Amino acid sequence: MRPLRGLVRPRPRSGARVTSAALVPLLLAPVLLFLAPAASAAEDVRTEEARVSSGSGADEVELDTTLYLPPDGGPAPAVVLAHGFGGSKQSVAADAEDLAARGYVVLTYSARGFGESTGQIGLNDPRYEIADLSTLIDLLAERDDVELDADGDPRVGVAGGSYGGGVALLGAAYDDRVDAIAPQITWNSLTAALFPSQTGTPDGETIASTPQTPDAGVYKRLWAGLLFGVGSAPTGGLIGGLGGGDDDEGGAAPSAAGQALPDLSSLDPAAVEEALTCGRFRADICAAYQTAGSTGTLTPEIAAVLDRSSPAAVLDRIEAPTLLIQGTQDSLFGLGQADANARGIAANGTPVKVAWYEGGHDGSASDRVTEDLREQVAGWFDFHLRGEGADPGTGFEYPAPTGLGSGLGQVQGGSQTVVADAYPGLEGGEPADRRDVPLTGPTQPVVTPPGGTPGALTTVPGLGALTSALGGSTLEIPGQFAAFESEPLDAAVEVVGAPTVQLAVAAPGGTATLFAKLYDVGPGGATTLPAGLVAPLALTGLSADPTRPTPVEVTLPGIVHRFEAGHTMRVVVSSTDQGFALPAESTVYSVALGGGDLAAGSATLAVPQVDGATQADTGSSRWWVLLAAVAALGLLGWVLALLWGRRRRRQVSHVEPDGEDVPLRFEGVTKAYKDGFVAVRDLSFEVRRGQVLGLLGPNGAGKTTSLRMLMGLIRPTEGRISIFGHAAGPGAPVLSRLGSFVEGTGLQPHLSGRDNLRLYWAATGRPAEDAHMDEAIEVAGLGAALDRPVRRYSQGMRQRVAIAQAMLGLPDLLVLDEPTNGLDPPQIHAMRDVLRSYAATGRTVIVSSHLLSEIEQTCSHVVVMAKGQKIAQGTVEEIVGAGGAVLVGLADEAETDRAIAVLEGLPGVSAGRTDDGLVADLDGYSRAAALQALVAAGIDVDEFTPRRRLEDAFLALVGES
């Protein structure tokens, strides 16, 4: 993830340690979904402990792992279990024993920065934590007791809750060897989770689709502070890494993590301060949290940190069947986060099943629910990893809605589950059904107090059920909220998902921070806030005139709740909430209902509803009911899994026979988007070894889209792209033979150019000696400037470092998008020589550029595109024209008349004097033969070039298209 930073936290005193120790189980408890297995099964499971190295250079870590081996010895599919934030491999030990007893090889580990593993917390950074997962999968591929799909490719699933759920999603996106995943109560976008703003039109037609205001949000201060506090307590390993060492004796004291801290007196004071401030977090995460905590503002730098570890941007890479489990009692990662994951994964055609349960980060699930979820995860892996059991399908399950509150630390409610055939509104399914509930209420002033104090109390992180346990009421401050109500309901209304409502808001300064929530008000006036959830709103561009407020579409929190007959639905919009960062200055907003008659004060609340079959109390009786279906489908499932496995193995092993001679091949590639726009249409071409191919086309021609598909960043709608004979899908291993520079440098501004190169290579996990760092540094040509921070570089300097970065490891296929942007003429000339020399070694270069003269002088071959289609392909000479007009420069102008006579003596050739000099129209006659005739006649020729340049040919081709 990319956490946020708040106030600098001093080293906790003993009392603070006790508080932290009490909060950690609240973070971990909701994500431990399995129950301990029966003792007899656990006794048959064997374990192997190991320290596994991952990463390289300064980022190399040792991961503390435990392997659980099934009683029958295998070979068997494997499952990697990732733990929640603040936990370790011990957090999932019972789960691992259970799965191993079921016949899986199970690998657990402590993520870097946690437990006994070394390193710093990167919040599931793909360069670190997700690369660590790939290292562990490599380890499984080397074991004889693990089933393989192909050499180096084990049959493997990944499961985990919260932090571990993020590992499952990101791991499946970045490593296509992952065959099935079961992420639980995890995030889609850390930016949206920690800086939420639920305004605007929802992204999809699903029941919990939650919009996010671009580039803005309300900082979730308490949750971020709790998470940072759990990870910031320095460990002995971290302090030792700064110079003290783990062998120091005397002066040691127990840390918050229960480890001994060495004597700090021998350490550098700056190192000590950084360790105590940032704890186990990486420096960039620590800096982001510091900024967020002090300003409460989402900056581009913070967003970059959060987005880096968010599955949102890479969901289209996930092909592993996905079981998404999300809790209804979760103010950290609400139902909207799972909804976004479901939409993004299903849009790629990947099977997705969604299950909501009573529990989450704010309250642990009951034993019955825990048992049911454990069976679901095991059943998902049984079917998708070894083809056993009933097909779990792609349906939707949620707890039967009740109007009950929750007890402290334990979610209560009905024992029934509602099962629907599909998750409403998901790809290809019916949109969510919504019921309109009329609301009324006048325009109301809402006061924001100075500094946001006193503030409303709704949710305590990790204790979201607290207010219900204390009587079902939250604390709203008079004068700080507006309320709009329905009439008492004639019949019960079951809300399953995120309701929407339109408001109208005016603010003197044009901006407002508000919090919307939906209360259940009983006939006697008792109020319940379902799950204690609120929807933060960061509003900008508002009218300052209360008589003409700005309409604002609001999505309320996703909930599962039954509003009984006679109860009232009340929408409350408040200016404060103690869980969030609030504006410092006092002001008064005007809030009204929108979407209707402003004077009448009316609007509608759109409430999502889901039809499904209610299952009986889950337990032994449930399995007797399902036993017949399981038995009937068992054989069919086995046959289908066998056929699927064969098909998958064929796909994995399929390599085009001429692949090594054809580094790149496009075959009928089309990329179309949901709105009907076709960016690339039926594109076919191939590139041979040693070629420098220029990709040309006007803006919007589809060049960058083609390159992004080539790199595996997006998938084609139709067709196939192969690199060295292998399919070039997202995460394909063959992409390791490709170096690229497309759409920006992506350099870390606070690091030097040299450190950026080292960091990039370290993220590949390959040995440092394979980087050919000296050659890359020579390409950059920055001299001493290479050791200055990138933020001080000019655009051209950044460009040169990025190109050098793409050439690290001397990739067999080099792809560059506008490589000469920002370079001066001498640098462009040098770059031209570098690319030609690079291709001369037998490698292949693809260059996309708008500088046609550079393409002409650099490239051997050209593909011209317009409006998403290829309109010409060939060598530069073929595109310009083999014959046509040539400009002849003579060493002696007196020879002009004799040269004209020689040229006109050739079949079909005419020649004459022009303002540009001697021009010959060859009319299809070979340029080489014409030049040879002049030389044979004893005429000294200084210049013999096509009068028609590539630019002329390009303009003609594009115009014709």
UniProtKB/TrEMBL annotation:
<feature type="signal peptide">
    <location>
        <begin position="1"/>
        <end position="41"/>
    </location>
</feature>
<dbReference type="InterPro" id="IPR003593">
    <property type="entry name" value="AAA+_ATPase"/>
</dbReference>
<keyword id="KW-1133">Transmembrane helix</keyword>
<feature type="domain" description="ABC transporter">
    <location>
        <begin position="664"/>
        <end position="892"/>
    </location>
</feature>
<dbReference type="Pfam" id="PF02129">
    <property type="entry name" value="Peptidase_S15"/>
</dbReference>
<keyword id="KW-0732">Signal</keyword>
<dbReference type="GO" id="GO:0008239">
    <property type="term" value="F:dipeptidyl-peptidase activity"/>
</dbReference>
<dbReference type="Pfam" id="PF08530">
    <property type="entry name" value="PepX_C"/>
</dbReference>
<dbReference type="GO" id="GO:0016887">
    <property type="term" value="F:ATP hydrolysis activity"/>
</dbReference>
<keyword id="KW-0378">Hydrolase</keyword>
<protein>
    <submittedName>
        <fullName>ABC-2 type transport system ATP-binding protein</fullName>
    </submittedName>
</protein>
<dbReference type="InterPro" id="IPR008979">
    <property type="entry name" value="Galactose-bd-like_sf"/>
</dbReference>
<comment type="similarity">
    <text>Belongs to the ABC transporter superfamily.</text>
</comment>
<dbReference type="InterPro" id="IPR027417">
    <property type="entry name" value="P-loop_NTPase"/>
</dbReference>
<dbReference type="InterPro" id="IPR013736">
    <property type="entry name" value="Xaa-Pro_dipept_C"/>
</dbReference>
<dbReference type="InterPro" id="IPR000383">
    <property type="entry name" value="Xaa-Pro-like_dom"/>
</dbReference>
<keyword id="KW-0813">Transport</keyword>
<dbReference type="InterPro" id="IPR029058">
    <property type="entry name" value="AB_hydrolase_fold"/>
</dbReference>
<keyword id="KW-0547">Nucleotide-binding</keyword>
<keyword id="KW-0067">ATP-binding</keyword>
<feature type="region of interest" description="Disordered">
    <location>
        <begin position="240"/>
        <end position="264"/>
    </location>
</feature>
<dbReference type="GO" id="GO:0005524">
    <property type="term" value="F:ATP binding"/>
</dbReference>
<feature type="transmembrane region" description="Helical">
    <location>
        <begin position="623"/>
        <end position="644"/>
    </location>
</feature>
<dbReference type="InterPro" id="IPR017871">
    <property type="entry name" value="ABC_transporter-like_CS"/>
</dbReference>
<keyword id="KW-0812">Transmembrane</keyword>
<dbReference type="Pfam" id="PF00005">
    <property type="entry name" value="ABC_tran"/>
</dbReference>
<keyword id="KW-0472">Membrane</keyword>
<dbReference type="InterPro" id="IPR003439">
    <property type="entry name" value="ABC_transporter-like_ATP-bd"/>
</dbReference>
